[in-house]
Design goal:
The chain has 66 residues and is mostly helical. It has four helices and no strands. α2 packs across α3.
Length: 66
């Protein structure tokens, strides 16, 4: 998952960065870093798993629509 994918996932579910941070019980700065489009590399597997678990715990799909 890239930063772009993560941003699209948030948009798809009508979440902004601070809402996701609150939902996932994460520091908002971390979520902002994940959304930073200047990141040239994909999010780490640990970051991806935290996103997946947070969304699944609220019954939200973690798939990005094409």
């Amino acid at each position: 998952m890239t930063s772009k994918d993560f941003r699209e996932l948030l948009e798809q579910h009508g979440l902004n960065q601070s809402e996701f941070a609150r939902l996932a019980k994460m520091d908002a700065r971390l979520v902002r870093r994940w959304c930073d489009l200047r990141r040239a590399h994909p999010l780490t597997m640990g970051a991806q798993m935290r996103i997946y678990v947070a969304l699944q715990s609220k019954g939200i799909s973690s798939k990005v629509s094409p």
